[in-house]
Amino acid sequence: MTDIKKNRKTTIYDLAQLTGISASAVSAILNGSWKKRRISPGRAEQVMRIAEQQGYTVNRQASLLRSRKSGVIGMIVPKYDNRYFGAIVEKFEAMARARGLFPFVTCTSRDPDLELEAARNMLSWQVDWVIATGATQPDKITQLCVQAGVRSLNLDLPGTLAPSVISDNYAGAKALTSRILDNVMRHKGSALPLVFIGGRGSDYNTRERLRGFLDAHSDYRVAVPDACLLPCGYASEKAETALADFCSGPENQLNGLFVNSTISLEGVLRELSRNRTTAQPLPPLGCFDWDPFVTLLNRNIDMVKQDVPKMLEAAFTLIDMDNTTPEIVQIPPLHVKA
C-alpha cells in the first residue's frame, strides 16, 4: 500500500486501489451498508482505518445527489444566555450525532428577521430538518421549509403548521403559583395577590403561564389587580425597571413574586437587594426557569425546571417517525426547591 499524493482530495477510487477491493464495496463500507454486501468485519475495519489515514472526507454534495438526504439537521435558538437554551442545544447536538446527523445551530437573538434569514441559509445548505426553538414566528419558518420540501418542528414555542414540543406551561405555572401563595399564607396568615413579572404577553408560553397564574389565584379566591401583571419582556434590565416602577406606586403591595425566567430573575434580585438589607428576607418568590446557582442565594425560592431531556426525546421521536402532523406535545416541567 502506498499513500495517495496529497495535492488533491482522496477519492473512493483511491481507497479501492489501496485496499484492493471494488469502489462500490468501499462505498458500502463508508456509508454503513457493508453488512448487506456480506463484506467481512475485518475488511470493513481495514478500509475505514485506511480512509482515516488518508484523510478521506465524504463528498456531501455527491451523497446528496444520490440519497436526496444531506444528513444535516438545523436548529434555530433565540438565546444562549440561560441554562435552558444551553441545555437544549447540548442535548440536541448529542442526539443528532447519535443518529449519524450533523447538527447545525445558530442563534437569532429573538429577532424575527434573523430567524427567517437563518432558516433560508439552512435551507440553502439543504438540511433535512429545521428545528425552530423559541421562534417568534414559527409558522413563517414552516412555510419557508414547506416551499423548499424540508420538514420542520417547533420546540419551546408552538406553531400551527408543524409539530410542536413544548413544556406544559399552564400546569407548571399554576402549580408554582399555588406554592408561592402557600408560602405567603405561612408568612402573612392569608393568601394575597402576587406580582407576575417577565416574559412577553404576545408569546404563547407567557400567555399560558399567566393563565395558570390567574387560575391558581382564583382557586384561592384572590383577585389579581392589573397593576400586578408585568409581562415586560425577558431582559433583566426591563424586569428591574418594571419592579422598581411597581414598588414606587403608593397603593402597590409586594406580597410575593412569580418571575418568568432566570434572565428576569437577575433584574428582580438587583432591585430587591437595592431596597433591602441582607438581614431582611425576600418576599415569597418563584421562578418559571432554573439555575443551580440560585441555591447559593440561601433563599427560599421555588423553581420550575423544564424537562429538556424528555422534550428532546419527544422531538426526535417525531423526527425518527418522519411525523409532520401539526400537533402539540406537552412535557410536564419539574419542581425544584432552591
UniProtKB/TrEMBL annotation:
Keyword DNA-binding on entry: yes
Top-level taxonomic group: Bacteria
Keywords: DNA-binding, Repressor, Transcription, Transcription regulation
PROSITE patterns in the cross-refs: HTH_LACI_2
A Gene Ontology molecular function term of the record: DNA-binding transcription factor activity
Keyword Transcription regulation: yes
Record field: transmembrane: none
SUPFAM superfamilies given in the database record: lambda repressor-like DNA-binding domains, Periplasmic binding protein-like I
PANTHER family documented for this protein: CATABOLITE REPRESSOR_ACTIVATOR, LACI-RELATED TRANSCRIPTIONAL REPRESSOR
Name the record gives this protein: LacI family DNA-binding transcriptional regulator
Species for this entry: Jejubacter calystegiae
